[in-house]
TrEMBL record, chain A:
Protein name: Peptide deformylase
Cofactor: Fe(2+)
Lineage, highest ranks first: Bacteria, Pseudomonadati, Pseudomonadota, Gammaproteobacteria, Chromatiales
EC number(s) stated in the UniProt entry for this protein: 3.5.1.88
CDD domains, A to Z: Pep_deformylase
UniProt key word Metal-binding: yes
Cofactor note: Binds 1 Fe(2+) ion.
Protein biosynthesis found in the keyword field: yes
PANTHER family assigned to the protein according to its UniProt record, in alphabetical order: PEPTIDE DEFORMYLASE
Catalytic activity of the protein: N-terminal N-formyl-L-methionyl-[peptide] + H2O = N-terminal L-methionyl-[peptide] + formate
Recorded family membership: Belongs to the polypeptide deformylase family.
Automatic annotation (TrEMBL), chain B:
Organism: Acidihalobacter aeolianus
Residues covered by the ACT domain: 93-174
Pfam families (alphabetical): ACT_6
InterPro entries for this protein: ACT-like_dom_sf, ACT_dom, UPF0237/GcvR_regulator
Designated name of the protein: Amino acid-binding protein
Length: 166, 174
């Protein structure tokens, strides 16, 4: 296992759209081990996506069991070819990113999602995710589509305080 | 002349084009811009921005004096120890609202400082009807001794008709 180098914005490689995984083999499992070590080597991150280390495949690791205040979660997940099947509600939350050091911003995300993804054995699963875990999944899937959270930052002034027009 | 950092504060009646004019004049003066915060407060234009360049406070003020006169702006320039990347991530958010009256901010801020709460951002607004205005405030900061201590410190304020809500801020890193 080895911690990999994390690409830092504005590295153009973070803009590339990742390809689906079509081989669930030992090489993929080895890469996921390295990706996990990379996630754990830096600041306390609840997720990491393969393109953040320069591999443009649709692979995400998510673990929302480690938050300061406990949140609903499915434990540690390896999400391969994840696909959001439905969205519900929206909420504002603060996000940061291993690839965007030293900046956090408020981002509007769906509050609840139904997510389908494959595991490392190639088995398909569906997850009903709420709140923080749903936010984290959306953040990571954005990486697979060449987006970072900076693309979605909104203003606290205009999106938290919506004054009634008079 | 070595480069220096300044905090430029500009206040005036709001009108279109202020930011563009200031930014252009600063660029022409050879200034680099750092962090900035612009707000319209009660119809007034306000901006604070960090400015770096090979000039003095007086020459920076002079570079903007024509724009200030034409746009009716008040300028203030302070030399500062410029340093970017001093970001502190808040872990607690405090929402306050109640009938608008003097002293709300002082009461809340004093209760917070007494438990070691470091205020990082404070935004407030006056809403509701002219005849019955309500004060709305949101504070984010770092709670030295945890959110429960903050909650306990602020709960007595509810007896004075102030609605207070305390939430933890969990910053997602991914």
């Amino acid at each position: 296992m080895a911690a990999l180098d994390v690409l830092v914005w504005p590295d153009e490689r973070l803009r590339r759209i990742s390809e689906p995984v079509d081989r669930f083999d030992d090489e993929l499992r080895g890469f996921v081990e390295d990706l996990e070590e990379t996630r754990q080597a830096g600041p306390s991150a609840v997720g990491i996506a393969a393109p953040q280390v320069g591999r443009h495949q649709r692979v995400v690791i998510l673990d929302c069991s480690i938050t300061r205040k406990p949140v609903a979660n499915h434990g540690r997940l390896v999400l391969i070819n994840p696909e959001i099947l439905s969205w519900e509600g929206h909420a504002l939350g603060r996000e940061g990113c291993l690839s965007v050091p030293d900046y956090t911003g408020n981002v509007l995300r769906a509050e609840r999602i139904i997510l389908r993804a494959y595991d490392l054995a190639g088995e398909s699963h569906e997850y009903d995710m709420n709140g923080f875990e749903a936010r984290a999944a959306q953040h990571e899937i954005d990486h697979l589509d060449g987006r970072v959270f900076l693309d979605r930052v909104v203003s606290r002034h205009t999106d938290v305080f919506r004054r009634k027009q008079r | 002349m070595p480069e220096s950092w300044f905090m430029l504060t500009v206040v005036g009646a709001d009108r279109p084009g202020i930011v563009a004019r200031l930014a252009r004049d600063l660029f022409v003066a050879g200034a680099y811009l750092g962090e900035a915060s612009m707000l319209r407060l009660g119809g007034n234009f306000t901006i604070m921005l960090m400015v770096r360049g090979e000039f003095t406070a007086d020459s920076l003020r002079a570079a903007l004096s024509v724009a200030a006169a034409e746009l009716g702006l008040h300028l203030h320039v302070d030399a500062i120890d410029g340093d970017l990347h001093q970001h502190v991530v808040p872990d607690v958010r405090v929402h306050v609202h109640g009938a608008d009256r003097a002293g709300i901010v002082a009461e809340v801020a004093e209760a917070l400082v007494a438990v070691g709460f470091n205020i990082l951002t404070l935004d407030s607004d006056v809403a509701g009807l002219h005849a019955a205005p309500i004060y709305v405030m949101q504070i984010e900061g770092r709670a030295a001794d945890g959110i429960e201590v903050v909650e306990a410190a602020l709960s007595p304020l509810r007896a004075n008709g102030i609605d207070v809500r305390v939430d933890s801020v969990e910053t997602l890193v991914g």
